[in-house]
Design goal:
heterodimer; A: mainly beta; 6-stranded mixed β-sheet; 4-stranded antiparallel β-sheet; 12 strands; B: mainly beta; 7-stranded mixed β-sheet; 51% strand
């Protein structure tokens, strides 16, 4: 069975600090996809990134970066120079290529204080 | 484009009542899904559909029914509401089935007393 673990329930940082959100996954599939979604206080879910299991290159998008390591089954998300607008709940998710059952982690609530 | 729309935004039901949560998308997406979000548990898949006329169960289907008569609409029916179904419900759609990015609706907050 597929499983996603986000061990950090809540993180609080001060603006401009860097912060890393951890995501560890379990799957027996050799081909799978990992996702990060953001849920700001308004409640909607916003897609951030998708990564397939064959692409271990790190990705950077502005202040956001993602580190995918198959050896440790982790797909961590780093926000550099955090801002108050980054305050949200962040979800990591896992999906196999041949099923329709996306599994989400429990989420990490990030609070960025001014 | 309106994207994914859900109605109502809020609903209070009494135990045993039935109701339908509406979901519609205008992006011509084949894949649609329903999730429930509970504190500390992330999102869990209730039902999904890979196209009109095709539906299947997700991780937590008990107590819910779905149908997909058109590409645009994917209603979720609660047959006999129970307090355990108090949750926030999200509808989502994507171009095709996983692993494509899903677009989420704004959610419906349901309370069952």
């Amino acid at each position: 069975a597929q499983k996603v673990t986000q061990a950090q329930t809540e993180i609080s940082v001060v603006e401009k600090e860097d912060v890393t959100l951890d995501c560890v996954y379990e799957t027996r599939d050799t081909t799978y996809y990992l996702f990060w979604y953001k849920q700001p206080p308004s409640g909607e879910l916003v897609f951030l990134i998708r990564r397939n299991s064959f692409d271990e290159q790190n990705e950077i998008s502005g202040r956001y970066s993602w580190n995918f390591q198959k050896s440790t089954s982790s797909f961590n998300f780093t926000i550099t120079a955090s801002q108050v607008v980054d305050s949200a709940v962040y979800f990591c998710a896992l999906s196999a290529i041949n099923n329709n059952d996306m599994r989400f982690g429990a989420g990490t609530r990030l609070t960025v204080k001014p | 484009n309106a994207g994914v729309t859900q109605t109502p935004k809020f609903q209070v039901l009494k135990t045993g009542q039935s109701m339908t949560l509406q979901c519609a998308q205008d992006m011509n997406h084949e894949y649609m899904s329903w999730y429930r979000q509970d504190p500390g548990m992330g999102l869990r898949l209730i039902h999904y559909s890979v196209g009109a006329g095709i539906t299947d169960q997700g991780e937590v289907p008990n107590g819910y029914n779905v149908s997909r008569s058109t590409t645009e609409d994917f209603p979720l029916r609660l047959l006999s509401a129970a307090p355990s179904q108090t949750s926030v419900y999200f509808c989502a759609s994507s171009f095709l089935a996983a692993p494509y990015e899903q677009y989420f609706g704004p959610g419906t907050r349901l309370t069952v007393t």
